[in-house]
Automatic annotation (TrEMBL), chain A:
It comes from Aquisalibacillus elongatus. InterPro entries: AAA+_ATPase (IPR003593), ABC_transp_ATP-bind (IPR050319), ABC_transporter-like_ATP-bd (IPR003439), ABC_transporter-like_CS (IPR017871), Oligopep_ABC_C (IPR013563), P-loop_NTPase (IPR027417). Residues 7-257 form the ABC transporter domain. Gene3D superfamilies: P-loop containing nucleotide triphosphate hydrolases (3.40.50.300). The keyword Nucleotide-binding applies. This is Peptide/nickel transport system ATP-binding protein/oligopeptide transport system ATP-binding protein. GO terms for molecular function: ATP binding; ATP hydrolysis activity. GO terms for biological process: peptide transport; transmembrane transport. SMART domains: AAA. The lineage of its organism: Bacteria, Bacillati, Bacillota, Bacilli, Bacillales.
TrEMBL record, chain B:
SUPFAM superfamilies: P-loop containing nucleoside triphosphate hydrolases. This is Peptide/nickel transport system ATP-binding protein. Keywords: ATP-binding, Cell membrane, Membrane, Nucleotide-binding, Transport. The keyword Transcription does not apply. The keyword ATP-binding applies. GO terms for cellular component: plasma membrane. It holds the Pfam family oligo_HPY. It is a peripheral membrane protein. It is found in: Cell membrane.
Length: 337, 340
């Protein structure tokens, strides 16, 4: 299937300045995202995973132009988003919508659901004024709420229902790409499952493309086509879902997957317990950023930045950034624990 | 079962009242914990897990009140003893750790000062011996260079390190019972793995009993021996961990398990529980789960089922398992269906 590339991110860097000293000069940088490249095909779900602070949200914010990237290019539908001025970008926001973790924080408590949805339609001018109410009711029903709840206010809904309102608002402008930043993370599992099923259904119905940001790998396995694993601002591995979960190659991905508790007491698996914490992105470790915690690290790991690439034995489209992928896979290099 | 029971809770009732409303946060919770074992308490947010924990420690403040039931700890009913006696049990025999260590650590004191204070209050240790014991405790919970760490303030530590400090404080007096309320919910999975391993190891070494409060069925499966599933302020199922996962009986337990997106296997379609938790101010009078249960009958809506033992050690609060069940005969025969 030759799908069209909808979004193409190239060499994205986002360095946040740290001000200090007497004159408030920039004394250092948080290297939140450091040379990240990927593309998303139309109709697919690509997930960004990794532990908090690894740069997932920053990547999403750069695509939405909520922050201006330090370096790199972002192409949407062949158009360079970073070259657009504010007004042009606002128009483009019709195509790129976002759903955040806490819908309550992004829904105005003084607006009824109708007003929230109508405002989105008005800004993007997608539905004529006299049709907006009808459309709002239709949208509510699309996301599994009752059309007759259209005049209610956000506080009258449960957490899961509010997230559905957030989804309805994103859908109101008929976007192509939706960035879901921890969109189901705050929900209880029974309700989270409802929202996940809804997102999948909407994707099929409207041929939506998702950039799905999450730290829960169960959720990610359920929703994704392809997955990117990040560590300290860098992509360490990228693969289709099946390959990533069943045949991960990067030592960090393996440790991350092995750390997730399995909801089955009969399964006894081997756990790779990583020592220590994630280092600071202000002065990240040299070479491979994972070398301070990696059980396979050798001298070269502290010296040279590993390239994200396909090593001969890996599936097509599967890439990992590790100097020792081959020796680890063949068993030549063993872990130090 | 001939195990020694360290904690036995019977029909606990904790209510929050103000002029115009009443929240029965814990409404008839019963469970028991054998000595040296881990009991998981699971359920959705608002189901009464934290209030149960705080009730055990008698830390419920106005407008909340424990209005009924028994909390038998080593044969003594904690609802009946004096405040003084309770204070000496708290911290000495029963300790608690919370989800967000930052809110329970005092930002203006160093880590060392806070551990020493605990040791002074509960064990009467002076500065010198308190310091030595603090360093030893931090070492025990896996904090590198503890001699330096005791001079640091909470904000200078990462989330995982702060949780280790909280565990060190909780362990300062060798408690017999540790209550951990979502101890890893705010942490990343690799750090969660470290903390759970730490709690497991310390439990083995010290022979502690643990109540592990969590909403994560994975954490339950990996750390617990017994499980109490809560819904709407009540225990709806109690079983040993293997039985609970292999042969869950309550429709809510089954619904929870069917909702989990698994990281280890492919599940085509999740089967969510429909609807959402009823408002605590407006609990249905019958089975609390009736509005979401696919098997609910008139009886379920009208009358609350009791928590009954239906197999050895397996208790369920559901009409399906009673003589009065007049709904789907299929579910009575085979139980609610697991889809994953
Ligand atoms: N506006 C900002 N200024 C300074 N640092 C920031 C800013 N936004 C994010 N960061 C830092 O960038 C890193 C990546 O953050 P983020 O993208 O939010 O991570 P994630 O979403 O993966 O948890 C973190 O270290 C965070 O503290
Ligand atoms: N201080 C309080 N005042 C009023 N209601 C409370 C208070 N604390 C808890 N509750 C209510 O008690 C119920 C159970 O809460 P809690 O035990 O915290 O749930 P869980 O820990 O299972 O998420 C909830 O409905 C909550 O709103
Ligand atoms: S490059 Fe070295 S440190 Fe980095 S993941 Fe590979 S083996 Fe580990
Ligand atoms: S008592 Fe009835 S409503 Fe409640 S869980 Fe059992 S079958 Fe469902
Ligand atoms: Mg984020
Ligand atoms: Mg709680």
């Amino acid at each position: 299937m030759a799908q069209k590339e909808l979004l193409k991110v190239k060499n994205l860097k986002q360095y946040f300045p740290i001000k200090g000293g007497f004159f408030g000069r920039t004394v250092n940088h948080v290297k939140a995202v450091d040379d990240v490249s990927f593309e998303i095909k139309e109709g697919e779900t690509l997930s960004l995973v990794g532990e908090s602070g690894c740069g997932k949200s920053t990547t999403g914010r750069a695509i939405l132009r909520l922050d201006d990237p330090t370096e790199g290019t972002i192409e949407f539908n062949g158009e360079d988003l970073l070259a657009l001025n504010k007004k042009e970008m606002r128009n483009r926001r019709k195509d790129i919508q976002v759903i955040f973790q806490d819908p309550y924080a992004s829904l105005n408590p003084r607006q009824s659901v109708y007003q929230i949805l109508a405002e989105a339609m008005e800004i993007q001018n997608v539905v004529p004024k006299q049709k907006r109410r009808e459309r709002a009711i239709e949208l509510l029903e699309t996301v599994g709420l009752n059309g007759d709840q259209v005049d209610r206010y956000p506080h009258e809904f449960s957490g899961g229902q509010r997230q559905r309102i957030g989804i309805a608002r994103a859908l109101a402008v008929e976007p192509k790409l939706i960035i879901c930043d921890e969109a189901v993370s705050a929900l209880d599992v029974s309700v989270q499952a409802q929202v996940l099923n809804l997102l999948k259904k909407l994707q099929r119905e409207f041929n939506l493309t998702f950039l799905f940001i999450a730290h829960d790998l169960g959720v990610v396995r359920h929703i994704s086509d392809r997955i990117i694993v990040m560590y300290l601002g860098k992509v360490v591995e990228i693969a289709d879902k099946k390959t990533l979960f069943e045949n991960p190659q990067h030592p960090y991905t393996k440790a991350l997957l092995s750390a997730i508790p399995t909801p089955d007491p009969e399964v006894k698996k081997e756990r790779i317990v990583l020592e220590g914490d994630v280092p600071s992105p202000i002065n990240p470790p040299s070479g491979c950023r994972f070398h301070t915690r990696c059980p396979f690290a050798t001298e070269v790991c502290a010296e040279k930045v590993p390239e994200l690439k396909n090593h001969g034995f890996m599936e097509e489209g599967h890439r990992a950034a590790c100097h020792h992928v081959d020796e680890i896979a063949s068993g030549e290099l063993g872990p130090k624990y | 079962m001939s195990e020694e029971i360290i904690l036995d809770i019977k029909n606990l009732q904790t209510v929050f009242r103000d002029e115009d409303s009443e929240v029965r946060a814990v409404d008839g919770v019963s469970f028991s914990l054998p000595k040296g074992k881990t009991l998981g308490v699971v359920g959705e947010s608002g189901s009464g897990k934290s209030v149960t924990a705080l009730s055990i420690l008698r830390l419920i403040d106005h407008p909340g009140k424990v209005e009924g039931g028994e909390i038998n700890f080593k044969g003594k009913d904690l609802t009946k003893i004096s405040d003084k006696e309770m204070r000496s049990i708290r911290g000495n025999q029963i300790s608690m750790i919370f989800q967000e260590p930052m809110t329970s650590l005092n930002p203006v004191y160093t880590i060392g000062q806070q551990i020493r204070e605990t040791l002074k209050v509960h064990q009467g240790l002076g500065k010198q011996s308190g310091n030595e014991k603090s360093v030893e405790l931090l070492k025990l919970v896996g904090i590198p260079s503890p001699e330096d760490r005791i001079k640091q303030y909470p904000h200078e530590l990462s989330g995982g390190m702060r949780q280790r400090v909280m565990i060190a404080i909780a362990l300062a007096c060798n408690p017999e019972l540790l209550i951990a309320d979502e101890p890893t919910t705010a942490l990343d999975v690799t750090i969660q793995a470290q903390i759970l391993e730490l709690i497991n190891r310390l439990q083995d070494e010290m022979g502690m009993s643990v109540i592990m409060i969590t909403h994560d069925m994975g954490v339950v499966a990996e750390t617990c021996d017994y499980v109490a599933v809560m819904y709407g302020g009540k225990v709806v199922e109690y079983a040993d961990v293997k039985t609970l996962f292999k042969d869950p009986k309550h429709p809510y337990t089954v619904g929870l398990l069917n909702s989990i997106p698994r990281h280890d296997i492919d599940v085509d379609e999740l089967e969510p529980i429909r609807g959402s938790v009823p408002s605590p101010k407006d609990m249905p009078k019958g089975c609390r789960f009736a509005s979401r249960c696919p098997f609910a009958t008139d009886l379920c809506v009208e009358e609350l089922p009791s928590l009954d033992e239906i197999e050895d050690g397996n208790e369920v609060r559901c009409w399906i398992y009673s003589d009065r069940w007049d709904g789907d005969p299929e579910v009575k025969e085979h139980g609610p269906k697991r889809t994953s």
